[in-house]
């Protein structure tokens, strides 16, 4: 009895509360609320809802208002009235509407539905009214109503607020999606492989593996696209559509992230094969940097898209990212400088991996160029980590970029060496230099150029083609060994710093003057023998 009296007491207030909602077109929020409120089941008055449509007859306006509501429900777009402005003079700050009194309800997912100010009131925009039939046909194709009419009476029975035909249609949609996924996966791999081969002539196993991984998410996207296209026409209602389509959009975004990650992997694989064919190794070092950089950019953009799907304002994200970026930049100025230095190193290419450089007192071989620093290994195998910001500013002496490696030295013969053997020795050294495959045979100098304190000086100046430091040392070794063998065959000795005291008349002492054999034939045979042995001992030149 008490509950009955309480209900009887509240009925007038409930009626009053329902009657209290009136048509209001004074601002964007009031207009959208008027449209949505008067199309609800417990407050269904389509004539009042149709007042939000400008310039149409009552019948046309009602039809348009209902279609706008059904399109929003079909796409799972639930209006958040707290986000809609209440300013009657609201001016959109969206690009393209900067000078218009216009508000777009869902700028990301449904930009063509908006309200605008006409006179002193707000109505659905002319763009929305003109495009609503097209939008409605996209969400609810013409054949849907005909298919629903063919459903027998038993199919319209409700189970948990949904009709039986909706369950069956949803299961059928899933089965078709699986079939579409299987077909599109094979088709995507075939098309990607044909495109790749057409433009790169590449059929490597690594690239094919990457293409298969790329085809998988693409086929999933095709299947999700079909579900997203057909599902709204099943008329599950706003609540179910909202969560199902939100899930589909989240999954699509994740798959797109995966697609771009795999696409970047394919492109980097192609670049790796190109880099392996080039002589320099700096572009090889660029591969891991590009991989990490592309991964970070793709993930950041993907997370940005996911946040937008969850209702975060893009302007807020960009503003936060800008402020956060400035804070990070101030807190890590050295890191930013090093990153810029890294970019400049890869742009200018002052050295390559494996080059022997001198930079700011550091001398060694470049082993790795990273995001922050470059690693240089010195001759004693110690490691130097040079910040890229410093390396991009200091003077770098790159021995690896020389056209040739110059080798200049002096060979000292004893003072008592006969002129004939000096000439033969010089000619033999020339032949050795010409015989070596890594020397520049048209540009060398071997001459008797002076008298030292302890030796007759033979200048040997030549240029080596191989720029690698280890290869230079190997070539020097081979030439040095050949010169020592030549001296042995000719019977000449190398001098060393010494002082010789000559006493011409000393009892029972022989002269210290060496005995030399200067026979021309023997000398020529000795040179020929040494040079031939030198040639035979050299490795075969690489093709």
UniProtKB/TrEMBL annotation:
<feature type="transmembrane region" description="Helical">
    <location>
        <begin position="213"/>
        <end position="231"/>
    </location>
</feature>
<keyword id="KW-0732">Signal</keyword>
<feature type="domain" description="Mechanosensitive ion channel transmembrane helices 2/3">
    <location>
        <begin position="294"/>
        <end position="333"/>
    </location>
</feature>
<dbReference type="Pfam" id="PF00924">
    <property type="entry name" value="MS_channel_2nd"/>
</dbReference>
<feature type="transmembrane region" description="Helical">
    <location>
        <begin position="243"/>
        <end position="268"/>
    </location>
</feature>
<keyword id="KW-1133">Transmembrane helix</keyword>
<feature type="transmembrane region" description="Helical">
    <location>
        <begin position="289"/>
        <end position="312"/>
    </location>
</feature>
<feature type="domain" description="Mechanosensitive ion channel MscS">
    <location>
        <begin position="334"/>
        <end position="398"/>
    </location>
</feature>
<feature type="domain" description="Mechanosensitive ion channel MscS C-terminal">
    <location>
        <begin position="409"/>
        <end position="493"/>
    </location>
</feature>
<dbReference type="InterPro" id="IPR049142">
    <property type="entry name" value="MS_channel_1st"/>
</dbReference>
<comment type="similarity">
    <text>Belongs to the MscS (TC 1.A.23) family.</text>
</comment>
<keyword id="KW-1003">Cell membrane</keyword>
<feature type="signal peptide">
    <location>
        <begin position="1"/>
        <end position="17"/>
    </location>
</feature>
<keyword id="KW-0812">Transmembrane</keyword>
<dbReference type="InterPro" id="IPR011014">
    <property type="entry name" value="MscS_channel_TM-2"/>
</dbReference>
<dbReference type="InterPro" id="IPR006685">
    <property type="entry name" value="MscS_channel_2nd"/>
</dbReference>
<feature type="transmembrane region" description="Helical">
    <location>
        <begin position="164"/>
        <end position="192"/>
    </location>
</feature>
<dbReference type="Pfam" id="PF21088">
    <property type="entry name" value="MS_channel_1st"/>
</dbReference>
<dbReference type="InterPro" id="IPR011066">
    <property type="entry name" value="MscS_channel_C_sf"/>
</dbReference>
<keyword id="KW-0472">Membrane</keyword>
<protein>
    <submittedName>
        <fullName>Mechanosensitive ion channel family protein</fullName>
    </submittedName>
</protein>
<dbReference type="InterPro" id="IPR049278">
    <property type="entry name" value="MS_channel_C"/>
</dbReference>
<dbReference type="InterPro" id="IPR010920">
    <property type="entry name" value="LSM_dom_sf"/>
</dbReference>
<dbReference type="InterPro" id="IPR023408">
    <property type="entry name" value="MscS_beta-dom_sf"/>
</dbReference>
<dbReference type="Pfam" id="PF21082">
    <property type="entry name" value="MS_channel_3rd"/>
</dbReference>
């Amino acid at each position: 009895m008490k509950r009955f009296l309480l209900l009887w007491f509240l009925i007038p207030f409930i009626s009053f509360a329902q009657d209290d909602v009136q048509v209001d077109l004074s601002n964007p929020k009031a207009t959208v609320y008027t449209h949505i409120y008067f199309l609800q089941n417990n407050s269904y008055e389509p004539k009042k809802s149709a007042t939000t449509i400008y310039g149409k007859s009552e019948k046309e306006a009602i039809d348009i208002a209902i279609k706008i509501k059904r399109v929003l429900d079909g796409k799972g777009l639930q209006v958040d009235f707290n986000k809609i402005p209440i300013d009657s003079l609201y001016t959109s700050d969206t690009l393209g509407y900067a000078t218009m009194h216009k508000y777009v309800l869902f700028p990301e997912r449904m930009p063509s539905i908006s309200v605008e100010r006409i006179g002193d009131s707000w109505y659905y925009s002319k763009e929305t009214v003109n495009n609503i039939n097209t939008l409605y046909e996209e969400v609810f194709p013409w054949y849907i109503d005909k298919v629903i009419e063919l459903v027998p009476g038993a199919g319209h029975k409700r189970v948990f607020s949904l009709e039986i035909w909706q369950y069956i249609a949803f299961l059928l949609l899933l089965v078709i999606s699986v079939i579409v996924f299987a077909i599109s996966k094979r088709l995507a791999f075939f098309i990607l492989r044909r495109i790749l081969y057409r433009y790169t002539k590449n059929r490597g196993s690594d690239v094919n593996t990457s293409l298969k991984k790329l085809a998988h998410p693409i086929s999933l996207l095709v299947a999700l696209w079909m579900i997203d296209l057909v599902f709204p026409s099943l008329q599950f209602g706003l609540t179910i559509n909202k969560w199902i389509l939100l899930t589909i959009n989240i999954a699509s975004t994740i798959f797109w992230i995966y697609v771009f990650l795999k696409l970047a992997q394919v492109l980097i694989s192609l670049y790796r094969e190109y880099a392996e064919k080039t002589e320099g190794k700096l572009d090889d070092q660029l591969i891991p940097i590009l991989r990490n950089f592309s991964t970070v950019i793709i993930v950041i953009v993907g997370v940005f898209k996911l946040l937008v799907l969850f209702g975060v304002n893009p302007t807020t994200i960009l503003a936060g990212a800008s402020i956060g970026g400035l804070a990070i930049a101030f807190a890590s100025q050295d890191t930013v400088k090093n990153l810029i230095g890294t970019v400049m190193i890869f742009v200018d290419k002052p050295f390559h991996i494996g080059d022997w450089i001198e930079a700011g007192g550091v001398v060694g071989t470049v082993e790795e160029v990273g995001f922050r620093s470059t690693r240089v290994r010195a001759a004693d195998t110690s490691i130097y980590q040079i910040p890229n910001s410093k390396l991009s500013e200091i003077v770098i002496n790159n021995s690896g970029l020389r056209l040739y490696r110059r080798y200049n030295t002096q060979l000292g013969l004893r003072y008592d060496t006969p002129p004939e053997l000096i000439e033969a020795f010089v000619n033999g050294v020339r032949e050795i230099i010409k015989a070596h495959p890594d020397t520049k045979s048209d540009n060398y100098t071997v001459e008797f150029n002076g008298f030292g304190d302890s030796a007759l000086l033979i200048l040997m100046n030549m240029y080596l083609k191989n720029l690698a430091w280890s290869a230079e040392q190997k070539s020097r070794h081979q030439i040095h060994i050949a010169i020592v063998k030549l001296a042995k065959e000719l019977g000449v000795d190398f001098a060393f710093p010494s002082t010789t005291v000559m006493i011409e008349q000393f009892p029972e002492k022989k002269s210290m003057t060496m005995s030399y054999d200067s026979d021309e034939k023997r000398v020529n045979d000795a040179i020929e023998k040494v040079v031939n042995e030198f040639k035979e001992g050299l490795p075969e030149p690489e093709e």
